[in-house]
């Protein structure tokens, strides 16, 4: 069983720094599987490259942090993902941590799970990113990829 233990935010923006321009999108999908199964599958961070196509590799650092290799617009990025919120079978939230190699490339996400009477699960994904590109297209693509991954089991 995967678990997550969020840690408090200790990072403060540097004085005089401007946050990068962020694009945001939200999408929803229904997956034909019980909420417990869907939630556990989303917690399998090593599977993220299978449905979040921008992520090429994920490695767990500790209970709340993951190293990730990303590819956007033909460029490779390395970042650290931090789990900020974990409400079992209900909600997960994460963000990338600012990095000296790519300080203007930030992203954050929240995924919510709602059990439905027919044993399916409604998923809502909210994603913000400064990596550029059509975030709304990526959200829909990621959700459809995740649905195929879960339902193929």
Report on this model:
- This protein is α+β, with helices and mostly antiparallel strands.
- The chain has a domain at 23-44 and 83-151: START domain (Alpha-D-Glucose-1,6-Bisphosphate, Chain A, domain 4), CATH 3.30.530.20.
- It contains three helices and seven strands.
- A seven-stranded antiparallel beta sheet has the order 1-7-6-5-4-3-2, with helices on one face.
- A hairpin with a 2-residue loop joins strand 3 and strand 4 (75-87).
- The longest helix is centred in the C-terminal third of the chain and has 17 residues, at 135-151.
- The protein is globular and about 45 Å long.
- 22% of the residues are buried.
Provide a brief overview of the structure.
The protein has 153 residues and is an alpha+beta fold. It has three helices and seven strands; from the N terminus they run E-H-H-E-E-E-E-E-E-H.
Distance between the termini: 17 Å
Instruction: State the total count of DSSP E strands.
Output: 7
Text of the CATH class of the domain at 23-44 and 83-151 = Alpha Beta
Using the coordinates shown, work out and report the CATH topology of the domain at 23-44 and 83-151: Alpha-D-Glucose-1,6-Bisphosphate, Chain A, domain 4
Secondary-structure content class? alpha+beta
* Apparent shape: globular
Number of helices: 3
**Order of strands across the biggest sheet?**
1-7-6-5-4-3-2
Q: What is the mean predicted local confidence, pLDDT?
A: 84
Q: Can you lay out the helices and strands and say which pair or pack?
A:
Elements: E1 23-31, H1 35-42, H2 48-51, E2 55-60, E3 65-72, E4 75-87, E5 91-97, E6 107-115, E7 121-129, H3 135-151
């Amino acid at each position: 069983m995967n678990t997550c233990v969020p840690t408090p935010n200790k990072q403060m923006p540097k004085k005089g720094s401007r946050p990068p321009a962020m694009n945001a999108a939200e999408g929803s999908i229904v997956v034909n599987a019980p909420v417990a199964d869907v939630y556990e599958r989303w917690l399998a961070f090593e599977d993220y490259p299978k449905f979040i196509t921008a992520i090429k590799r994920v490695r767990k650092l500790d209970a709340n942090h993951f190293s990730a290799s990303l590819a956007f617009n033909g460029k490779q990025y390395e970042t650290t993902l931090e789990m900020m919120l974990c409400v079992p079978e209900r909600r997960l939230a994460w963000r990338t941590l600012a990095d000296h190699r790519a300080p203007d490339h930030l992203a954050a996400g929240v995924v919510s799970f709602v059990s439905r009477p027919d044993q399916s699960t409604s998923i809502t994904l909210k994603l913000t990113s400064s990596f550029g590109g059509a975030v709304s297209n990526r959200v829909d693509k990621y959700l459809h990829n995740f649905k195929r991954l879960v339902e193929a089991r």
